[in-house]
Amino acid sequence: MLxxxxxxxxxxxxxxxxxxxxxxxxxxxxxxxxDADFTRKHYFDLEERTGPVVYNATAAFMQRGPxxxxxxxxxxxxxxxxxxxxxxxxxxxxxxxxRGDFAHQTxxxxxxxxxxxxxxxxxxxxxEEAEYEVGLWFDKTExxxxxxxxxxxxx
Length: 155
Ligand code: ADP
What we know:
10 helices, binds adenosine-5'-diphosphate, Alpha-Beta Plaits, single chain
């Protein structure tokens, strides 16, 4: 999911392109805003993991503007996408990753200023989380089956 910072910075196309370039197949996509209730459902364990200060900052950040949610399929897609997205704190994210290339922010400054880390993209952490999140964000009718050119072009 492209977070509000990615959308307002006009990076949507360039970020989505990276997933297509890696032969991941887009099977659903939408732009929407999320409210406090939906944010809680999406980040259901974040407060428990990071505490109320980080949770509230992140929840406010996620509601600052529209986001673009999309579902991709491919071999080992969850791990591949996480690798492409990079570490949570952009200063720790590898160059070449989305967060490493397009963001620069440290955990130290985020914590000191009480701001959420504006790190452009959310990506499911594992298969179970991916299944939960796809179900939360998308109705079955919003997901599509088709054969990509890469699949059709079977070496
Ligand atoms: P990730 O998005 O890399 O899976 P988490 O699920 O741990 O990371 O955190 C969710 C989001 O909350 C992060 O992407 C970031 O925007 C924000 N966040 C997490 N930890 C912090 C922190 N210590 N300070 C500010 N924002 C944070």
